[in-house]
Design goal:
The complex is a heterodimer of chains A (152) and B (152).
Chain A: E1 10-15, H1 19-30, E2 36-41, H2 44-51, E3 65-68, H3 77-85, E4 95-99, H4 104-112, E5 117-120, H5 125-142
Chain B: E1 11-15, H1 19-31, E2 37-41, H2 44-51, E3 65-68, H3 77-85, E4 95-99, H4 104-112, E5 117-120, H5 125-140
Parallel strand pairs in B: 1-2, 1-3, 3-4, 4-5
Helix pairs in contact in B: 1-5, 2-3
Classes of the chains: A alpha/beta (152), B alpha/beta (152).
């Protein structure tokens, strides 16, 4: 409905330290017809550096959506989420928490910190790819994202 | 994925003043045979009484998810969104804005007010069905919702 017609790719920031999960996400996204530009941050500090365009990251793209793991080195995902949603310049970017944790406490805390949604990452590869597809179907074809006008 | 959410069906609060749109949403859910417990609040004041469990809503259970129209008489959707997301008791409930407005300003404002996602409201039944399908596949079968463990 929106991004699918777009001229520019959807910018996704994936904050994930597990190379296997990065590869799987990349593969799942590649199966879709949608043009996607995936930027990967391997820890929480790198994620914030990219988002705030600090130091080496002055030319980092503005993400349309952020996929955030919770358990990360240096600065964990819970802090990254609080930093994003507490920053007037960043808070409108949708953050999808994508994590192996199924703890009720993590789910509640993420929503209380204004995560846009929380997905428990399945361990099974086929299930994981299915989750990424459902996520794409919702966020990139049904939802209106901020800066949506720039897709057209 | 989230089997516990399938027991008893998720509770959805639709905040919508236009009878035709309420009917279309109900038809789309019925058409798909989805097990969703839908409640309707037809204006902002009624929605907030429902969510704060004030008379005559003392005995209702809080919804798992809220679909919110923006343009309503009296207290409009933007105010309702700000109140929900400013209330410690309610802010973890995902709010999906569903509106005919496609203005960049409304999209940006709603995400800044911590709407969980923003969808433009279709006019035709088949498009309502597509949205209900995507909402169901994403929010009720893929996402972990807060309080999902306390269902039933």
């Amino acid at each position: 409905m929106n991004a699918l017609k777009g001229m520019r790719p959807v910018e996704i920031l994936l904050v994930e330290d597990n190379p296997g999960d990065v590869r799987l996400t990349r593969e799942a996204l590649r199966e879709n017809k949608l043009k996607v530009n995936l930027t990967v941050a391997e820890d929480g500090e790198e994620a914030m550096g990219l988002l705030l365009k600090q130091g080496d990251y002055v030319d980092a793209p503005d993400p349309d959506i952020i996929l955030l793991d919770l358990n990360l080195p240096k600065k964990n995902g819970r802090e990254v989420l609080e930093d994003i949603k507490g920053n007037p310049k960043l808070k409108s970017i949708p953050v999808v928490v994508l994590t192996t944790s199924k703890a009720e406490e993590d789910i509640l805390r993420a929503y209380a910190s204004h995560a846009n949604c929380y997905i428990a990452k399945p361990i099974d590869m086929g299930q994981f790819i299915k989750v990424v597809k459902v996520l794409e179907d919702f966020w990139f074809s049904i939802v209106k994202l901020p800066r949506d006008g720039s897709f057209e | 994925m989230n089997n516990e959410q399938k027991i008893g069906g998720p509770r959805l609060l639709l905040i919508e003043d236009i009878p035709g749109d309420i009917r279309l949403m109900k038809e789309a859910v019925r058409e798909r045979g989805l097990d969703i417990e839908m409640h309707v609040a037809s204006d902002g004041e009624q929605a907030m009484s429902f969510l704060r469990q004030q008379p005559p809503f003392e005995h209702v259970l809080l919804p798992d998810i809220i679909l919110l129209d923006l343009n309503m008489p009296g207290k409009d959707g933007r105010e309702v969104l700000a109140e929900i997301k400013g209330d410690d008791n309610l802010k973890t409930i995902p709010v999906i804005v569903l509106t005919v407005s496609c203005s960049e300003n409304d999209i940006e404002l709603c995400y800044k007010l911590q709407a969980n996602s923003f969808i433009s409201k279709p006019v035709r039944l088949e498009n309502f069905i597509a949205i209900v399908d995507s909402l169901h596949n994403f929010w009720f079968t893929t996402v972990s919702l807060p309080r999902s463990g306390k269902r039933g």
